[in-house]
């Protein structure tokens, strides 16, 4: 039969409802994986669904933790849910993430973490030995971070509905008088630095999830950052902004800060520390390390006159030994992050739409 042109009108259009994509369609009536990625879809979900429902000035801050006045004290309060797959990976487990993720959120407000609450959602059929291993790792991580788990809850869901187990942790910590660290304080002229190499955690989890070998074991950077933050604040009391670049990676963290403060951020692409093994793995997988989650690194914005002291303070701590200055704040291109490339050009670093590597924190 000869080829013919189908001229029938397509009144309904193609059906994309079954597609799964790292850059999902933004229009639709159902949740997709990208809504949990810390990028544009996550921001729209908070803006359009949760914020109108909950309201309140404290929620509008949209920091890593809420800063509250209570009984004459300033406290930071944060909650996070962890759905990482697999439950155990080189350098940590979901138990370590549950503690360090919440402790670090508190620390990014300048708080000294104190107490945690912990909730487990267990899937019917998961081995009790697995639950015990996660609980042991969570308890050990809490002791290393100097916090105490003081309350919790357990629920069980039917087989096939829980992926083994999920963990939620909430935490509180005290903020010392005079400490004011929040995204809105970024100012033109601020120096931007990171506490060490990026992209390690996400690649470590992906390597074991997919059974990939890159010639060298990549170990997660999962760690509590409270002590590192205390060292930084002791050297530079007027730190403007701290952020741990977890979901959405460094790119998402910088974009969120730029948008919150209404400033531009200019980054020297060559100054961003990316380990060779991470760069190689990302090249193989078609990923950008700037968008890969970290669990033991922070981004700091400090006044230019205190940049040397801040960098020295970070490098004096084991968790900040490879800290680096990566850029500056500017009054140009407000709300936008721009990278200077190695070829002398510039490129816009967008907020990610969805998530390159789902289920890694």
From TrEMBL:
Domain PurM-like C-terminal: 187-333
Domain PurM-like N-terminal: from-to ranges: 64-175
InterPro entries named among the record's database cross-references: HypE, PurM-like_C_dom, PurM-like_C_sf, PurM-like_N, PurM-like_N_sf
Positions of region (Disordered): 1-20
Gene3D superfamilies, per database record: PurM-like C-terminal domain (3.90.650.10), PurM-like, N-terminal domain (3.30.1330.10)
GO biological process, one term: protein maturation
Record's compositionally biased regions (Basic and acidic residues): 1-11
Pfam families from the UniProt entry: AIRS (PF00586), AIRS_C (PF02769)
Coiled coil: none
NCBIfam families reported in the protein's UniProt record: hypE
Similarity remark: Belongs to the HypE family.
Protein name: Hydrogenase expression/formation protein HypE
Organism: Streptacidiphilus jiangxiensis
Lineage: Bacteria, Bacillati, Actinomycetota, Actinomycetes, Kitasatosporales
